[in-house]
Amino acid sequence: MGFDALLKIMQNTVSPDALVCDAPNDMKKTESGLANLKYLVVGILFGIVFVKAEIISWFRIQEMFRLQSFHMYGVIGSAVVVGMVSVWLIKRFDIKTLSGERVEFHPKTFNKGQIYGGLLFGLGWAITGACPGPLFAQIGSGYMVVIATLLSAVAGTWVYGYLREKLPH
Amino acid sequence: MEFIDLIRKPWPWYVAGPLIGLTVPTLLLIGNKSFGISSSLRHLCAACLPANIPFFQYNWKKEIWNLFFVAGTVLGGFLATHFLENPDAFQLSAATVTDLKALGIRDFSGLMPADLFDTVNLFTLKGLVFFVFGGFLVGFGTRWAGGCTSGHAIMGLSNLQWPSLIATCCFMVGGFTMTHLILPHLMKLF
Known about the structure:
The structure holds two protein chains of two kinds.
Chain A: H1 3-13, H2 37-52, H3 58-65, H4 71-92, H5 113-128, H6 132-140, H7 146-163
Chain B: H1 3-8, H2 13-31, H3 39-48, H4 64-83, H5 94-102, H6 125-145, H7 149-158, H8 162-188
Helix pairs in contact in B: 3-4, 7-8
């Protein structure tokens, strides 16, 4: 069997994008365990914003989907604007990371999963009142029952991985 | 007014939104990391129960920063709730209160309705719908879509990715459908 044929079989059995995750770590240098505390700190600040702006509230998500408050639209909209300007600045001035590396971006390719999966996630978002980030902050805020929601979300992710080859993409 | 009193009050969108947006350049610049939270659920699967599924065969240890990030989010939620507690009562728009009362919600005192998000509901039909079924849709849907509100709506749109715009629109369509067409029927079950 030629190398090309072998390669083809490998590509058929394991889709290439399954080998990396959706937002892979692009840092070339390896980080020590302690260096990961940086991300813990960013996560802490992020969790505080989520609670203080009441983004973790099931009620605020209901307000959003009932178009009865601008709050959530303002939060998401202004976050996107600040994110866009930041990404533009990083690209325009080729701003390097703290360790001097070039910042990597991941172009997203369209597949039907963004439609089917997006709709399913939307249904779940309005039931739980939380996207994945707020789930973690809700647990921290003392809503212990949300641990069940999080475990079920992990189970949902696992079942997706199990069924992936059979689902339309 | 003292600073501490000011930050105890609920933060307006024009403070919270930009801070969340700044997470994007912060993660990129401190370690070349793309913002995305639902990936943490995948890393947990890859770390705990990969079960020879190709989708979970990758080096999750390289992505451990993401698990540090979500652990921080839990901690941040704890700190904000216990040390920066809002001194005033939770304010919800009057129209939402009316709508939700019609659906049977009685308690509007906290960030989450005590009628639903209480441990006593864990092993009931309510629990099955709101925690198990809802959570499953969040985990299954975000991974199929390849990201959630952070990875698609914030990181993806910031990087002008049109598939992320499609995903974000679908998130909203799903949410509107649940709120207006399905939730009223679900609430009648209890």
